[in-house]
Write a structure and sequence with these properties.
Elements (H helix, E strand, L loop, with lengths): L5 H16 L6 H11 L5 H5 L1 H6 L11 H17 L5 H12 L2 H22 L5 H13 L1
Helix pairs in contact: 1-2, 2-5, 5-7, 6-7, 6-8, 7-8
Length: 143
């Protein structure tokens, strides 16, 4: 969405949350972001203070989830579902939702698969392997 400009992305999330909180009209992408933020009340105070959000580091050693990464994963999955790309992801999501009955929890499970796929791609210096991602989702659906 914003390339590698972390501060620009973080500021955008904060601005979207400010607009949503004020009841201002939102663009389609902003609506997706605002909905993900609404589902995560634990991140709302972070997004309400843009200056603090810009300077904060989230490392595994701190034991805290990076709210921007977490929300970005939700958004990526929702965009995948909207486009059914990779082909078949929507069917797998629907199967998982029917079984689990909780779409948000299903997205969290899908995020694990997506994160692993992205990590492998980054480590290997290549594009993410859509087939491997779909296979991970299929395993979830069979479990």
């Amino acid at each position: 969405m914003f390339g590698n400009d972390r501060d620009h992305l973080r500021r955008y999330y904060c601005t979207v949350w400010e607009k949503a909180s004020a009841g201002q009209p939102l663009e389609p992408l902003e609506q997706i972001i605002a909905e993900a933020i609404r589902e995560h009340p634990e991140y709302q105070p972070v997004l309400a203070d843009a200056d603090a959000a810009l300077g904060r580091e989230y490392t595994p050693e701190q034991g805290q989830t990076n709210p921007f990464l977490h929300l970005g994963m939700h958004i990526a999955i929702r965009e995948q579902l909207g486009a059914n790309r990779p082909a078949g992801v929507l069917d797998l999501y629907q199967r998982l939702c029917r079984r689990a009955g909780d779409a948000h929890a299903v997205e969290h499970r899908m995020m694990e698969c997506l994160g692993e796929t992205l990590w492998e791609a980054q480590r290997a210096g290549r594009e993410p392997d859509e087939r491997a991602y779909l296979e991970r989702l299929r395993r979830l659906a069979r479990a």
